Each structure stands twice: as structure tokens, then as C-alpha cells.
Amino acid sequence: MVMGSLPERVDVAVIGGGVGGYVAAIRAAQLGKNVAIVEKNKMGGHCLNYACIPSKTMIHIADLFYEITHSEKYGIKATGVSMDPAKLYDWRMDVSKKLEQGVEYLCKSNGIEVIKTEATFISSKTIQMANGEELDFDKAIIATGSEPNFLPGFEPSQNVIDYKAALMLKEIPSSMAIIGAGYVAVEIGTLFAKFGTKVDIIAHSDLLSRFDRDAVSMVKKRMDELGITVYTNSVPSNLDGTQLKLTTGQTLNSQIIVSAVGLSPYTANLGLNNTKVVLDTHGFITVNQSMQTSDPNIYAVGDVIGEPLLAHKAIRQGEIAAEAASSRNAGFDNRVIPAVIFSDPEIALAGRLDGDGINVKKFPLTALGRAIALGKTDGFIKIGYDKDANVKGVEIVSTDANSMIGEAALAIEMNATLEDIADTIHPHPTFSELFQEVAAAALGRPIHFYYGANK
Ligand SMILES: Cc1cc2nc3c(=O)[nH]c(=O)nc-3n(C[C@H](O)[C@H](O)[C@H](O)COP(=O)(O)OP(=O)(O)OC[C@H]3O[C@@H](n4cnc5c(N)ncnc54)[C@H](O)[C@@H]3O)c2cc1C
User: Fold this and answer.
1) Catalytic: 428?
2) 306 Cβ closer than 6 Å to some ligand 1 atom
3) Rounded CA gap, 53 and 263, in Å?
4) Structure confidence by residue, pLDDT tens digits, 361-407
5) Other residues' Cβ atoms within 10 Å of the Cβ of residue 21
6) pTM
7) In this structure, what are the phi and psi dihedrals at residue 320, rounded to the nearest 5 degrees?
8) Of 426, 373, 378, nearest to 401 (Cα)?
9) Separation of CA 311 and ligand 1 centre (Å)
10) Cβ count within 10 A of residue 64
11) DSSP codes joined into one string, 35-66
12) Spacing, Cα 65 to ligand 1 middle (Å)
């Protein structure tokens, strides 16, 4: 919308046009509210423009390149295959552009005022735009997301970049050191290694330290094959040009250094001191089940309210905040928030496999026809269930784990039993049969894997 033609007042003002914000705006509009959304950069926020979508776009292309150049065992001998980084860049940018425009279209179609500027609270009733114009609201929803952290001395410079810049490189670097060993480091490191970059990962403790070691060992095996070196229990101590010294004694010489040491809530210039909104000790906005902050007029969703920092969590919270701000009875009561690491193989998780009274059964990919046919047998599924055989958690380490974990989340939400899953016909030959196989195994009636006489 053109600045200078703001409405004086709206029912709901959303600040931040990322996945949490635009979903909240659309849902509020569906409920008949007069809505404005204020975004200072690009509609679609980090997920669509700089993070989830660009990383998965580039992972797909890296996989394609790697498969083409490493398929001799299937009888495919590809010679003269080359990578044009400029075309890769154009494709990656076009994908984000399409999604950004799609979000703008959806907002406008739902009658939402899209205002492209920075918003600051000047009270619990009013926000001010960068040009000084003011907008009164009945309710506001904050969805301002997060920003990358940096270790002191390793802030962005000519040689140090963040994840956004790493996913917008116009050249494939010959070497890359990544500070950090969480999922962002693994995804970025693996994709560039598949393009031929020599990748080093510097892990403060260990690779993917918060994840199941059984799963991580599969990913680590693949990273070893790709020539990725992981320096564990190490942090960078000094940077001299492109020379990175580690506390463990090594010196790395990398063309590019990527910082991937986590995210912090983004509340800069938001004027929260002019409201009753309260932050926790890490700077995240505190909310109740309905996403309402300590200021009754103001709600908050997504990364800015804390872990897990995931797009689909922000989306659900956006819907809840919109409904609660529209006087509907809404609260976050989901049992699980699934998570996926787009590593090779992928790791997908829903619910829990540990804790009192939880039994776990595992089924290997080596026993699945589809996995054997594709030559992708590194991985497994694990299912966690209680004494009543209700499913409590699922972990999948596999190609396409991302598209299977939704079934696990649904099973847990619906309180499904092992029998429900084992007796549901899953199409053959597909990776989805993993569910049926592991559930049958947990019931003591495995078919395609022999667990021994005691099952
Ligand atoms: C490399 C990477 C890969 C990721 N991959 C995945 C993935 O595969 N799946 C997944 O679920 N999650 C993924 N994430 C996490 C995901 O990106 C975030 O959880 C998600 O973007 C959070 O959405 P949000 O709406 O809370 O905030 P954001 O997407 O950060 O949007 C916030 C918006 O608010 C705007 N803004 C901030 N302040 C103001 C202001 N004062 N006025 C106006 N506008 C303002 C910003 O410009 C921004 O556009 C990834 C993250 C990274 C770093």
C-alpha cells in the first residue's frame, strides 16, 4: 500500500509478514476482521526468502547434481556435467520471488492492507510507521521472527557470512568452514559438499548434539563419504583474513566462513517498552496458551516467542492468535510439533521415544523393498509406544523422511494404537510401509525383518 493513505484504525494489526504473520493476517480476515500487515522487508519473511525454501531448493539441486555425477553403479556414466552457479542463483531467487508474490496476492485477495515499512509500538493501542504515520488497532499480533547470532570476533565481514548470504552465493566456493554444528550447518555443509566444496564444520560439542546418536551416526557416515570434516569440542579462537584458528589447535584456510550459531528473537526498534509486553531472560516474548502477551491487546507468534524455531509452529500459532484476537476460544493444544533435518539421510521426529513407560521398536531400511530399489538403505524408523500400545513418538532416518513424518504426527494427535497403523494398508512399494512394518514389529508380528526367536 502507498504510504500516506493509511486507514486510521484496524481491528487487527500484524507486525511481520513471515509465515507466522501472514497466516495470522489471513485467518483474522477470514473471521471478518479489518486487518493490516506491516512488513519492513519481503512478504514471506525469512522462511520463504532466506531460510527454509532457499535451503531446500538448493539441497534438491545439489542432490540432483550429485546423483547425476555419481550414478555409475546404475549404469549411468555422465561426462562433461558442469554446474552453472549463476543459473542456480536465478532459480533459487525465482522460487522465493514466486512465493513472495503468492503471499502478497493471498493477502490482497483477503482484503488485507499490506504496508511495506517498519512498525514501532508507541502505545498498547497504536503503532507508528517509519515515516511517522500512525495506525490505531484493537488487537496487534507480533510476528517479527529472529535474527542470526554471531560469536564475538566472528561477525559478518568480507570473509564471514551468515546463512542468508550462504544461500545467495553466486559462486560455488572451493572451501567453506562452518562455525556451528546444528541442523543449519549440516544442511548447508552437505549441499555445498555435493557441489564439490571442501567443507569443514566446527562443533562446540558434537555434530547435531541435541539429536539421537543412532540417527546422527547415519548422517555422519554420509558426511564422511562427502569429505566433510567435523572438528568436535572446538570453537574458533582467532580469524586472520581467511585463516581460522581453532581452540583444538588446527588452522583452517577457507575461502568462505559461514556462521551458523543459532538465532535470537528479533524485537529491535519494536518499541515494546511502550507496551506491557514482557520478555523472558533470553529476550523471547512471553505468551499464554492463546498467544496473548502480558499486554491484553497484543499477541505474539513464531520465532519471537521461542523454541522450537520452526515455520510450521509459527503457522499454527498464527492461526491461534488470529482466532483468539477475534474473540474465539483458541489455544495451542497440539501434542506434537514435528521436526525435520534435511540432511542425507533426512532425520524426522514427532513426539518422544524416551521417558517412563515408553517402549521403542526399530525397523531398518535394509529390509524395505523401496529403499533397496533406490539404493538408499542407510536409515531406520523407530516407534515409541506406551503400555496401552498408543503411539507416542516416531523417528525416521531415511530419504523422504520429510514426507512421512506427517503421518506420525497425525497418529499421535489421534492417539492411534500400533494396531491402527499395522492394520492400515500402506501402498507398496513405498517408504510409507516403514510405519506398518515397525508397528507390526512392535506388536510382535514382524514380516519383512527377522528379529530373532524372541522378536
Ligand atoms: C537456514 C535455515 C533453514 C530453515 N529451514 C527450516 C525448515 O526447513 N523448516 C522449518 O520449519 N523451519 C526452518 N527454519 C526456521 C524458519 O525459518 C523460522 O522458524 C520461520 O521463518 C519463523 O517465522 P516467523 O514468522 O516467526 O518469522 P520470520 O520468518 O523471521 O518473519 C519475520 C518478519 O518480520 C519482519 N519484521 C521484523 N520486525 C519488523 C518491524 N518492526 N516492522 C515490520 N516488519 C518487521 C521481518 O522483516 C520478517 O520478514 C530455518 C531457519 C534457517 C535459519
Assistant:
1) yes
2) no
3) 17
4) 999 999 999 999 999 999 999 999 999 999 999 999 999 999 999 99
5) 31
6) 0.96
7) -65, -45
8) 378
9) 7
10) 11
11) EEEE-SS-TTHHHHHTSHHHHHHHHHHHHHHH
12) 28
